[in-house]
Specification:
Blueprint lengths: L1 E8 L5 E10 L2 E6 L10 E3 L3 E5 L1 E6 L15 H14 L3 H17 L2 E8 L2 H11 L2 E6 L14 H14 L6 E3 L1 E5 L5 H14 L3 E5 L3 H10 L5 H7 L7 E5 L5 H9 L3 E4 L1 H6 L7 H6 L3 E4 L12 H16 L7 H8 L1 H6 L16 E5 L11 H7 L6 E6 L2 E5 L2 E2 L4 H21 L4
Parallel strand pairs: 1-4, 1-5, 6-7, 7-8, 8-9, 10-11, 11-12, 12-13, 13-14
Antiparallel strand pairs: 1-2, 2-3, 5-15, 15-16, 16-17, 17-18
This protein binds zinc ion.
Zinc ion (ZN) binds next to loops.
Length: 436
């Protein structure tokens, strides 16, 4: 594929005009002002367009698209107990597959190239990612509250091992398996050590929810002799792995030191934290301490969309509002969090920037929009003015997944039809059982 005469964002988010980009197989082959004399492949005209790295959604629960909009206005605990868990208990593997595909469509059409997902029925979710052409780090958020239970008997643990075998046979490394632990408050010490050991043995990323709510954070301290979830997990060796810590709204100074020391990543889910009334994470402080900080949507039922452009806008505004300082988080800082920092956090060291030799993961933004004119500062326009509908094309490993409103790898009508039908079936089951 040859992209001709386009504006391009480099690693430092500086704009280069009139660039030609040659993609060969899954990588960028050439970037610069030259043009090949003859080219037989697909040519994309870059007029009024901007090319930038795709987004990395670093904490999601893809099939929760199926529960979008249910349980609105409930306090967090009731929301989980009354709206989420009963619905999830009725979700079959195929429901998760179609729910995941629905989420993947939403992600690729808003410029996302890779997702870190935590849920159940992970083989079906990984299959949806594999078929769609998108990248993803998939994990089961394993839970176990019974210290006498054998870990090998937990379905989520067994599914993790099975999926590790399955992806080994896939022809590329787009879909990877992480070691998932739902959270401290849904685990035993034995389970945390087992999942951490699994990650260590196989060089996997350990993905967990940490200190999302004040309740969770404070209850951990009273349960674990004053130790916070971060401190407790550190004592069990978790941070000897690369760790994706979702939320971190309530972490303390000592926790931040631990995360910085161990090069852990904080996945910042601003929409979800605001919507569920959990609070606002101190992102600027994380970055100042050198903690790799990334952007995520969380599941669609606490957001209620999977739109990384909206997240970037909110990340920027919330930091400025929280610290009452408009100099916090420049647009380039936010873009870095949503792109290369995310690729690093997923262990994808050859992704996240548009440079020769890197994987050809990128998006093209249509600049010919009223809300993007004039273009005094393209990076500011991307973070503060752009809409997800401005994404014109999304490419992963050199393959076009979405272009000009069309999904090239997913049957849009079929997936929306199946997802709606299945969500309605579960809703009917719930109402028959006398539940909301
Ligand atoms: Zn989550």
């Amino acid at each position: 594929m040859l992209i001709k005469d386009i504006k391009l964002l480099d690693r430092d988010f500086k704009v280069h005009e009139h660039q030609n980009v040659l993609v060969e197989a899954d990588r960028f082959k050439y970037i610069g002002s030259e043009l090949p004399e003859e080219y037989a492949g697909e040519v994309i005209d870059g007029k009024d367009k901007l090319m930038m790295p795709g987004f990395y959604n670093t904490h999601c629960h893809l099939p929760m698209t199926m529960i979008r909009g249910r349980g609105e206005g409930l306090p967090l605990h009731d929301w989980l107990e009354q709206a989420m868990f009963p619905f999830e208990n009725r979700m079959k593997p195929e429901d998760c597959y179609y729910g995941a595909l629905l989420g993947i469509m939403e992600l690729i059409s808003s410029g996302c190239v890779s997702v870190s997902d935590m849920y159940f029925n992970i083989i079906d979710i990984a299959t949806a990612l594999h078929e769609s052409g998108m990248k993803g780090n998939v994990c089961h958020g394993v839970t176990c509250m019974d210290p006498s239970k054998k870990i090998e008997d937990i379905k989520g643990y067994r599914d993790t091992l099975s999926l590790m075998d399955i992806v080994r046979d896939w022809s590329d490394d787009r879909v990877r398996v992480d070691a998932g632990l739902h959270a401290e408050y849904t685990s035993t010490e034995k389970l945390i050590e087992k999942m951490s050991g699994l990650a260590k043995q196989n060089g996997m990323i350990f993905h967990t929810h940490i200190s999302e709510t004040r309740k969770e954070h404070e209850e951990c301290k009273s349960r674990r002799g004053g130790r916070t979830p971060v401190q407790y997990m550190e004592s069990l060796g978790v941070f000897e792995n690369p760790v994706m810590c979702a939320h971190c709204v309530w972490i303390e100074d000592e926790d931040k030191e631990i995360l910085a020391r161990h090069h852990a990543t904080i996945s910042h889910c601003i929409s979800s934290n605001l919507k569920l009334g959990s609070g606002i994470a101190t992102v600027y402080d994380f970055l100042k301490r050198g903690i790799n900080t990334v952007v995520a949507t969380d599941g669609a039922s606490s957001n209620n969309n999977l739109n990384l452009m909206e997240e970037m806008h909110l990340v920027s505004l919330a930091a400025k509002g929280f610290f009452r300082d408009p100099t916090m988080l420049l647009p380039a800082d936010v873009l870095r969090m949503a792109t290369i920092n995310g690729a690093r956090a997923q262990g994808r060291t050859d992704c996240g920037v548009i440079e020769e030799g890197f994987r050809a993961d990128f998006v093209i933004v249509d600049l010919d929009r009223p809300h993007l004119a004039p273009l005094h500062d393209p990076v500011s326009n991307l973070v503060h003015s752009a809409q997800s509908s401005d994404i014109w094309m999304t490419v992963v490993d050199g393959r076009i997944l979405y272009k000009d409103g069309e999904f090239l790898t997913i049957d849009r009508e079929r997936v929306i039809h199946e997802a709606k039908k299945r969500a309605e079936r579960i809703a009917a089951e719930l109402s028959e059982a006398g539940m909301k």
